[in-house]
């Protein structure tokens, strides 16, 4: 008997599998190379202290009265510490812009309405954090924060949403 050998040919599936394996090896090599050639981004210790200035617009006056120096606030997870309210807050009547009959806008202040009167609150937090090589600020090394950024923090009495107005390192 004569034995016949059949030649095995590459199919499209075989070529696809080979290309996928080669692509995975190249991607892993690039990842290892990138990890070895990347400088660490954090250049300062995470225990440096900063003062974060803030303003919160249109807060109820009854809520604003709950804020006092020394209050500790936390990030949304409730576990990660944000910082301590550094000073007594400044409370001013909320600014309201009203439209006149001729279409002009004028600045006025929110009406007195008992505990529901709207006020603007400003103050400062003392936080621990660091800056990376680009100068970006991170609270506890993980939570990015910058001027003009909206932030919401919590304590056992309230949630506080505010806009960051400044960041200064404590000497």
Low-pLDDT runs: none
Whole-number radius of gyration?
29 Å
H and E order: HEHEEEEEEEEEE
Structural class: alpha+beta
General shape: elongated
Oligomeric state, counting identical vs distinct chains: single chain
End-to-end span in angstroms?
A: 95 Å
> Biggest β-sheet, characterized?
9 strands, antiparallel
Mean pLDDT: 84
Question: Could you explain the architecture of this structure?
Answer:
The longest helix is centred in the N-terminal third of the chain and has 25 residues, at 12-36. The protein has two helices and eleven strands. It is α+β, with helices and mostly antiparallel strands. A hairpin with a 5-residue loop joins strand 5 (95-99) and strand 6. It has helices at residues 12-36, 61-64, and strands at 48-60, 72-74, 81-85, 90-93, 95-99, 105-109, 118-131, 137-139, 143-145, 150-154, 159-169. The strands form two sheets. Strands 1, 2, 3, 4, 7, 8, 9, 10 and 11 form a nine-stranded antiparallel beta sheet that branches. Strands 5-6 form a two-stranded antiparallel ribbon. The chain is elongated, with a radius of gyration of 29 Å.
Identify the notable features of this structure and list them briefly.
two-stranded antiparallel ribbon; 11 strands; alpha+beta; 171 residues; 17% helix; 42% strand; single chain
How would you sum up this structure in a few lines?
By secondary structure, the chain is of the alpha+beta class. It has helices spanning 12-36, 61-64, and strands at 48-60, 72-74, 81-85, 90-93, 95-99, 105-109, 118-131, 137-139, 143-145, 150-154, 159-169.
């Amino acid at each position: 008997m004569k034995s016949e050998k059949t030649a095995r040919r590459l199919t499209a599936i075989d070529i696809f599998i080979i290309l996928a394996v080669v692509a995975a090896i190249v991607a892993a090599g690039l990842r290892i190379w990138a990890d070895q050639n990347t400088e660490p981004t954090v250049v300062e210790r995470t225990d440096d202290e900063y003062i974060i200035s803030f303003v919160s617009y249109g807060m109820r006056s009854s809520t604003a009265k709950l804020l006092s120096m020394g209050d500790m606030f936390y990030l949304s997870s409730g576990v990660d510490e944000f910082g301590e309210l550094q000073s007594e807050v400044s409370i001013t009547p909320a600014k309201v812009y009203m439209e006149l009959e001729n279409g002009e806008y004028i600045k006025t202040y929110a009406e007195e309405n008992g505990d529901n009167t709207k006020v603007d609150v400003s103050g400062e937090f003392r936080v621990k954090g660091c800056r990376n090589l680009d100068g970006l600020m991170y609270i506890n090394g993980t939570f990015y924060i910058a001027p003009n950024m909206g932030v919401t923090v919590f304590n056992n009495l309230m949630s506080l949403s505010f806009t960051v107005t400044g960041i200064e390192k404590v000497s």
